[in-house]
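Listing S7. Sequence submitted for prediction.
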Amino acid sequence: MMDTEIWITIGAIFVLLLLSAFFSGSETALTAVSRPHMHHLLKTGDKRAGIIAKLHARMERLIGTILLVNNLVNILASALATSLLIGVFGDTGVAYATLVMTLLVLIFAEVLPKTYAINNADRTALSVAPVVRLLVLVLSPLSDAVQVVVRATLRLFSVSTESNLGAISDDELRGAIDLHAETGSTDDQERAMLRSILDLDHVEVGEIMVHRKDIFTVDAGLSPTAILEQVIASPYTRIPMWRKKPDNIISILHAKTLLSAVKLQAPVTEKLDIPGLAAKPWFIP
């Protein structure tokens, strides 16, 4: 082979390996990307997160397209390397090509890009999403044809092809909460609070609410001095106020608001409108 042809072939192999690395990293990043983070970015208007969401909606097409192109460039790179080394070393060039391309593809087109992508999944996925989307659109007919063959083959062995990538079970959420806590990002109290949210369907109202007869309340008709004494003696900061009868709750008094008003108007006089300091109560039918 001519020197020029050799260098052109080597350059082509190098470009194909770069493409292979790109597709390998893209596959890893797009499958390992944090869906909650992408959902948050989508809500904030990040168009790239929207692209990733659309790609995930057709995950089989995405994976099929990337694998199709990745295998194509790997096979083409290996074929060029084999042709090159046969021209230089004769028949033994096949063995050399097999050894060299195995090492190059394994290290630089698989392990290296996948390792980087798995450690920078979100950032990598956002970067490659526009290019991958274009690739999926162009090759979707061929990718869909491959998927038809794959699905038909799996059905022969009674293997379900229904995807559940979009569903997150309660057990997965509990596992994510526990894993987050084990990293030290949350304490036991926060973990218990997060886990309790998943159990709301099984919690009785009486377990989380105080019965009306046990609630500490204050008569709004009392004098400001009497109300102040009761609030100071109470261990609570938010106190319901009633008028005429305990069932007639008219407002919620915050102890901090009362004490601030008392500080401004000390000493306390009968002119202090304590019910006017209280907030409007919320009633849940």
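Caption to Listing S7: primary sequence and predicted structure tokens for the chain studied. The chain has three domains: 3-156, 170-205, 210-277. The first strand starts at residue 218 and ends at 219.
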